[in-house]
């Protein structure tokens, strides 16, 4: 299969996973429910946020730490439109929204029924989505390098030691009855260095400078390593995740002729 086919990349990365896929159910209580009852229920299930119902529908919320005496409604806050996402919203929309607020309410089937926080981005579906995006970026790098250079001119950009590592990997893959090009045997950082050091490719990717390109690539490698080793990506890589989400359309289209 050609690297340009990519199945339906838009469907996989833009529409495949939605907010509803990772949202947690939102517990809810009537406005007049005693606050101490609500507190006990929230503590028992380790809920930090709960919806407050009026006329049968969730229209307000409470935070567990704020509950005291009286009714739960006394401690409730209105749910602002900026804190609501539709269940069909994409993960990139979710990330960008969570960059503004600590949690969001999810609206589906005509009412607010879910809640999602940054912590939910640690879930396997989101980690798979991010790892897939980084893999896609690497494939895109390979495609535009092939189109930029005729033959092996790209080798002049890399050090001899990096070329030797790629050659060793190529030999091993050939031993396994594969037939990769030397370019396909480069590491992610090697492909990135070719992009960063070539002004035309750097401009095509959208790096404002070589220094900025090196910073972005370093952060992408760090995120990939943390994903692979089950580290806390929200704590360690939040700005990188936001950056990918902000530039998702570019990530998907670059190298396809549709930029």
Describe the secondary-structure layout.
Layout: H1 9-15, H2 19-22, E1 24-25, E2 28-30, H3 35-45, E3 49-54, E4 57-63, E5 77-78, E6 84-86, H4 91-98, E7 103-108, E8 111-117, H5 124-148, H6 160-175, H7 188-197, H8 199-205, H9 210-228, H10 233-246, H11 248-253
Parallel strand pairs: 2-3, 6-7
Antiparallel strand pairs: 1-8, 3-4, 4-5, 7-8
Helix pairs in contact: 4-10, 5-7, 5-9, 7-8, 7-9, 9-10
| Molecular shape | elongated
The strand order across the widest sheet is 1-8-7-6
What is the end-to-end distance? 22 Å
Structural category: alpha/beta
**What percentage of residues falls in helices of 4 or more residues?**
40-55%
Give the radius of gyration: 24 Å
β-sheet strand percentage: 5-15%
Mean pLDDT equals 91
Total helical segments: 11
Number of domains: 2
Question: In oligomeric terms, what are we looking at?
Answer: single chain
Helix-strand string: HHEEHEEEEHEEHHHHHHH
Largest sheet: 4 strands, mixed
The total of beta strands comes to 8
The unreliable regions are: none
Key descriptive features of the protein:
259 residues; alpha/beta; CBS-domain; 4-stranded mixed β-sheet; 49% helix; elongated
Plain-language structure description:
With 259 residues, this protein is an alpha/beta fold. The chain folds into 2 domains: 9-120, CBS-domain; 124-253, no CATH class. Helices cover 49% and strands 14% of the residues. It contains 11 helices and 8 strands. A 4-stranded mixed beta sheet has the order 1-8-7-6. A 4-stranded mixed beta sheet has the order 2-3-4-5, with no helix packed on it. A hairpin with a 2-residue loop joins strand 7 (103-108) and strand 8 (111-117). The mean pLDDT is 91.
């Amino acid at each position: 299969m050609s690297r340009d086919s990519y199945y339906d990349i838009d469907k996989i990365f833009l529409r495949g996973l939605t907010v509803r896929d990772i949202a947690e159910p939102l517990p809810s209580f009537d406005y007049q429910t005693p606050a101490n009852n609500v507190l006990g229920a929230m503590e028992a299930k380790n809920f930090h946020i709960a919806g407050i119902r009026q006329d049968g529908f969730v229209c307000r919320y409470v935070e567990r730490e704020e509950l005291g005496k009286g009714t739960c409604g006394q401690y409730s806050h209105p749910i602002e439109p900026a804190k609501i996402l539709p269940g069909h919203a994409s993960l990139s929309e979710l990330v960008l929204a969570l960059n503004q607020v600590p949690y969001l309410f999810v609206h589906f089937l005509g009412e607010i029924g879910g809640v999602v926080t940054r912590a939910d981005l640690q879930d396997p579906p989101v980690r798979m989505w991010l790892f897939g995006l980084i893999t896609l970026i690497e494939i895109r790098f390979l495609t535009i390098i092939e189109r930029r250079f005729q033959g092996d001119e790209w080798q002049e950009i890399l050090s001899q030691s990096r070329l030797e590592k790629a050659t060793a990997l190529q030999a091993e893959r050939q031993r396994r009855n594969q037939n990769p090009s030397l370019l396909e045997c480069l590491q992610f950082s090697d492909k990135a260095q070719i992009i960063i050091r070539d002004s035309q490719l750097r401009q095509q990717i959208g790096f404002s400078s070589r220094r900025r390109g090196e910073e972005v690539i370093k952060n992408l490698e760090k995120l990939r390593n943390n994903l692979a080793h089950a580290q806390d990506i929200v704590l360690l890589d939040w700005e990188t995740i936001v950056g990918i989400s902000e530039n998702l359309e570019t990530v998907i289209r670059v190298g396809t002729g549709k930029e």
